[in-house]
Design a protein that fits this description.
Elements lengths: L6 H7 L4 E6 L3 E10 L5 E12 L2 E12 L4 E6 L7
Antiparallel strand pairs: 1-2, 1-5, 2-3, 3-4
Length: 84
């Protein structure tokens, strides 16, 4: 019988590791997951934010952020950041 892994259990296993977050908007974030809650609001540190604009791709480095889970489209544990 196959073991079952629930979504929040997978996110919990990612605490302390790098994670690639793809947002519903034109933004992607890559940082270390410090913690999260039941709504998948997340605290990330050493974050690099990639935003696609009409002028091209903008890259912003952030020390620490609180990310609202309502805006997250996909989480990629251990995923690589997009090419800058």
């Amino acid at each position: 019988m196959a073991s079952q892994l629930l979504p929040l259990e997978l996110v919990d296993k990612c605490i302390g590791s790098r994670i690639h977050v793809i947002m519903k908007s034109e933004r992607e974030l890559y940082g270390t997951l410090l913690g999260f809650d039941d709504f998948v609001n997340m605290v990330l540190e050493d974050v690099v934010e990639y935003e696609t604009t009409s002028e091209g791709r903008r890259v912003t480095k952030l020390e620490q952020i609180l990310l609202n889970g309502n805006n997250v489209a996909m989480l990629v544990p251990g995923g690589e950041p997009p090419e800058a």
